[in-house]
Request: fold
Amino acid sequence: MIAENLQRLKEKIITRCEASNRNSNDIRLVAVSKYFGFDAIGEANNLGITDFGENKAQELRDKYQLIGDKVRWHFIGTLQKNKVKYVIKAASLIHSVDSIALADEINKYAEKLDKIQDVLLEIKTSAEETKAGLEQEEQISTLASHCNSLSGINLKGLMTMAPFTEDERLIRKSFSELRNLRDKLNQQGFKLTELSMGMTNDFEIAIDEGATMLRIGSAIFGPRDYSKDWRVL
Ligand SMILES: *Cc1c(COP(=O)(O)O)cnc(C)c1O
Reply:
């Protein structure tokens, strides 16, 4: 099933890239493997997927122990300071930095490991209460400067989640806001290349709006069973 899903997804990505004049090689597909186990990840990896996203710190730690550096791991969930230690070894990119305190903690562990941790800032681009991330431009620019002052952190771009809605205009607005924010920060002298946006239900709009990383789960692995532990899947 994963093979067929992937084939269909890749076709859709390529079609949309052509329609919006983008090169699909400029877009990295991050397969969101949360709730899925070793077998599913292995299967996707055998089909050429190199990047996997997890949103829970301990789950990433445990999967990393099993699978290691054979694939690139992305941490995409809300990250509590006290859980940085679980993700820092595994994560090639942390998508969800949203405070100075968290950046400092990541920096501290990165320095211990002699690692420069690539990160994105998580931005709240919708009015939904449940969405995480920074909203105010001044705060965002302050945090971006702070990241650049830390030797264990390399700030590469921004991440967002669109609102959960059928209204395409609202989704598009959320993604274009992220792109505009990146452009504004770059005018201020930052060098942000990455826009992590677009999931199963909205990746085509994200491609139109300049996404460089798509975080896609169910379209690849099928629906998640939230009542099951990934170890027994
Ligand atoms: C689960 C998750 C995704 C992927 O969701 P799908 O709808 O299954 O593609 C993307 N980003 C984040 C932050 C997630 O938690």
